[in-house]
Design goal:
The structure holds two protein chains of two kinds.
Chain A lengths: L7 H25 L3 H33 L6 H18 L10 H28 L8 H22 L4 E2 L9 E4 L2 E4 H23 L1 H11 L1 H6 L4 H27 L1 E2 L3 H16 L4 H22 L4 H15 L14
Antiparallel strand pairs in A: 1-4, 2-3
Helix pairs in contact in A: 1-2, 1-12, 2-6, 2-9, 2-10, 2-11, 3-4, 3-5, 3-9, 3-10, 4-9, 6-7, 6-9, 7-9, 10-11, 10-12, 11-12
Chain B lengths: L1 E12 L2 E12 L3 E5 L6 H9 L6 E6 L2 E2 L5 H7 L1 E4 L11 H8 L6 H14 L1 H5 L10 H13 L5 E5 L7 H16 L3 E6 L2 H7 L2 E6 L2 E7 H5 L2 H8 L2
Parallel strand pairs in B: 3-8, 3-9, 6-7, 7-8
Antiparallel strand pairs in B: 1-2, 1-4, 4-5, 9-10
Helix pairs in contact in B: 3-6
The chains are: A mainly alpha, B alpha/beta.
Chain lengths: 339, 236
Amino acid sequence: MNLRLVRGRTADVLFYAGIAAVVALLLKEALTNPGHWSLFFQLAVDGVTLGSVYALIAIGYSMVYGILKLLNFAHGDVYMVGAFIGYGILTLFGGAANWTIPVWLLVALMFGASMLGSGFLGVVIERFAYRPLRDAPRLAPLISALGVSFFLQNSALLLLGAQFRAYPFGLIGQGGVSIRTVFISATRIFVIAGAVVLMIVLTVFVRRSRLGKAMRATSYDREAAMMMGIDADRVIASTFFIGSALAGAAGVMFGLVFTEIFHFMGFTAGLKGFTAAVVGGIGSIPGAMLGGLLIGLGEAYATGYVSSTYQDLIVFSILIFVILVRPSGLLGTAAVQKV
Amino acid sequence: MSLLRLAGVNTYYGEIHILQNLTLDVGEGELVSLLGGNASGKSTTLKTILGLVRPRTGAVEFAGEDVTQRATSYRIARGIAIVPENRRLFAPMTVLENLEMGAYLNRDGKGRKEDFERVYTLFPFLHERRHQLAGTLSGGEQQMVAMGRALMSHPKLLLMDEPSMGLAPILVERSFEIIQQVHQAGVAMLVVEQNANMALSIADRGYVLATGRLVLEGPAKQLLEDEGLRKAYLGR
């Protein structure tokens, strides 16, 4: 049964019309006020920064969905835990104001600990909340995921309290780069570059490594992969580790740029990451990257040109529109029913 | 001594009793056919051998070892490989990557190179198309990839699940030629088929399953002439 509201050529026309409309609106904003070109590019910098964080979250969503067909709703909270692990390392080495070790080492430790910690958290979640339900109806692990999400949020609330914690402003460096009137802070450059490096490493890993290929094989056909001698449980655990580690890195990046973290931050970020994964085509890693970027840019331009009140409205409108005209996402392949 | 032995195996899906007290064996280098109509338990037998489903009672022995409680990956590492029903290739991956997956447990670089050469000699076509996505090949070509993939682990025992399914008659013939070729190289085979005449014409021995029970067994030649074979297919 096909439940799509618009299909075929209508969908294509709407899709391109949508793109044209967005481009036209952006151009109008940038052109009507000549001085606005600098705002336009400044917002682009914001959008790409935000998009990097969303893309890293979206990759984990997408990888887990690809291999288990499970929406891991606890993923956003793993990201929250990652941000707090980074904060913990910061506190351990002298706190937000006067750290006792070189900055590069501090940042490396924050990322290392956060990625490892989040990665293991992901593996533990899979082992105890999802694996026992592997053969259960699909609704069961979904509810289990929501349970884990609440568990992590409330654990953080209990242990760390409800107040905001702050990463130091400009930990990476107070400076930045100015291109004409557009300023890009050192932190943003660092975060964007870091996200790009992580994504390249991931892409090469999935394409070339033995484990990466086993992950792809397992996501296409788990039983056939097992027939090749692939240990599906181990491959699934590795997938959770990698996806969660990326979310942990995203959490630290968010802290570095936006400084304020709190126990509930994973909810919205998780939703945005999920949206990014769906917009890009859930199950597709390049799709998650593209989706993250689009959602980040959408949010930045919505905030800059319309109002921050409407940013979420606009982001989720993008989701609805894309699902309407491209149900399998921008880079997703239409699901082929096995006969 | 037999290479593979199922002893009194009872396999269930939930409460449904699929394999009922099944006993069969495959000797070293032997080619055995397992015949039966739809839903006779042929595929379940293969899954039980691989450990994808576990029997409730009974034992699976391979190469003199009781592997009943062992994981699938362990059994594959001991020398079992399968060409699954409908081939089950990793369609969005290249031919080369599919072959690599066949050699997943074989990490030794040199041995692996030899395996590639052996498979490419048997199927020069695969070398030609190694960078093509497996899903874009025709049915007959995919069958070659599936055979090549299974042979990458240089198995002692090769399981074939319905090698003739979905292939044009000429390709079925070609497929059975390859099976014979592999068999002559010393690989023991258990070929599951609906096409009884074809399967028995190349086999040493045969078993006939009907609704999870063994109804007939014996040398292939004898089975070909047996009235019971027809009965098993047409029902009682």
